[in-house]
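Run log, item B.
One chain of 185 residues. Sequence copied directly from the ordering sheet:
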Amino acid sequence: MQAGKVTPVIDRTYTFSQIPEAIRYLEEGHARGKVVITMEPKNQTSPVSANLAATSATTSKSYFVAFALIAIVIGVTIVPIIVALVLNRRFRRRNPGNKPYRWGYYFSLLSFIGGLGLGIMLESGVTAVIVCGVIYGVLAWFFAQRYHWAWITLTILSFNPVAWIVKFIYLRKRWAEDSVATATI
């Protein structure tokens, strides 16, 4: 190579972000030489200015990620607890003789949030998020109305074996209390 007897033939050069196009070009079989992937964009003028731009973009992305994580933690843990306590207080005011239902309201809210999360994880777009949110929201509403079939369905659709065990114990106890209360009335 150093003597100049072998010269590599470079057919095309692609940037790192253009890897799919490079692979398509190779698969077509038109390459007459090597296809090179470079690690920096072709139009980069100065490594220092690019480094500064990347640093500021990374910093703003870091703040956004940190803010999103904090918002998720607060939105998924604290907000459902507060809403469940408010709904339970409302229920107890309207039905003073009945047992409180904090756990049921909390599980209903988390199921709805889980349905939205499932729709997001499916990455099928806004339609999937809306459909999953509506399905889980309707089930959560029936769950909060104490329909047994909704309890079972939401427990299964939680996709959480720990929740299955906890809910099995809780629902068995709760349904036994409901049947005793119904029998005494």
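Observations after the first pass:
- Helices lie at 19-28, 47-94, 102-121, 126-144, 148-156, 161-184.
- The two ends are 96 Å apart (CA to CA).
Flagged for discussion on Thursday.
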